[in-house]
Amino acid sequence: MGDYSLATAVVHYAAAAATDRGRKRPSNEDAFGFSVEHGVYLVCDGMGGAAAGEIASSLAVDEMLRLLTSRTEATPMQQAAEEAVRVTNEAIFTRSQRNQKLNGMGTTLVGLLVEERHVWVLNIGDSRCYRLRNRHVEQITLDHSLVEEQVRLGRMTRADAQRSPLRNVITRALGTQSRITPDIFELEAEPGDLFLLCSDGLTRELSDGSIESHLAADGALDDVCTRLVRAANKAGGHDNITCLLVRAA
Q: How many separate domains does the chain show?
């Protein structure tokens, strides 16, 4: 009976987020949004000249939230996620085509979608999702970046990747072309799991070990977010920093 009751246990989620311009950038091109009620959590890191990055990331968050929070129960979550990415990509791409100043704008996307214990993580670009379970952190997403793909192919070491002048180059972004495919990872949540969605302004400054120690430290989600942002700024704050925490209980 014990196993059966565990398998059907209701999981509740709580969330908190923080975003910061960092110490070097004139503006913040990151955006986040979430709905605990609908089980949708999103972080985007925009790119493009002038204000294009800010427009791309906020448009992505707004569209994805609108589409996923209006999903009917008849539509499976993964299908709804793929359709939301398609529509959102089209919206950003169309807008960039219409306005010369926004030409080439795009954004990363990392999302966490939950339905009871079922969890879907989707990503495009190099914003990441981590899961802390039993005080151990694991990166769920795979970066769509030039250097990470070289590391995975064994052509570049992790240390070389961190020093590479090409480490900002991403190989997949939302809105930069007419079609895009996200990676989607399907997981089972356990009570006590802590998920982190973040832009590369956090992971560029903090090692996985440092992130793990911050996540494993007890405290309110708001406080953990604040401490992560503060640590990334202290380490240099070279980019905008966003982190969104989602705890299963």
A: 1
Tokens 């973040």: give the residue.
198
pLDDT in tens, 165-183: 888 899 999 999 999 999 9
Domain interval for residue 112: 12-248
| Nearest C-alpha neighbor of 65 from the set 27, 37, 30 | 37
| CA–CA dist 34, 48 (Å, integer) | 24
Instruction: Identify the CATH number of the domain in which residue 225 sits.
Output: 3.60.40.10
Please, which pLDDT band fits residue 123 given cuts at 50, 70 and 90? very high
39 to 13, 18, 65, 196: CA distances (angstroms): 8, 18, 10, 14
Q: How far apart are CA 106 and CA 94, in angstroms?
A: 11
- Statement: the pTM of the whole predicted model exceeds 0.85: yes
- Per 3-state DSSP, the chain is made up of helix, strand and coil in percentages (nearest 5) of 35, 30, 35
Q: In the prediction, which pLDDT does 51 show?
A: 78
Is 1 inside a domain boundary?
Answer: no
Nearest to 7 by CA among 153, 117, 155, 82: 117
Write the DSSP string, 185-213. Answer: EEEE--TT-EEEEE-HHHHTTS-HHHHHH
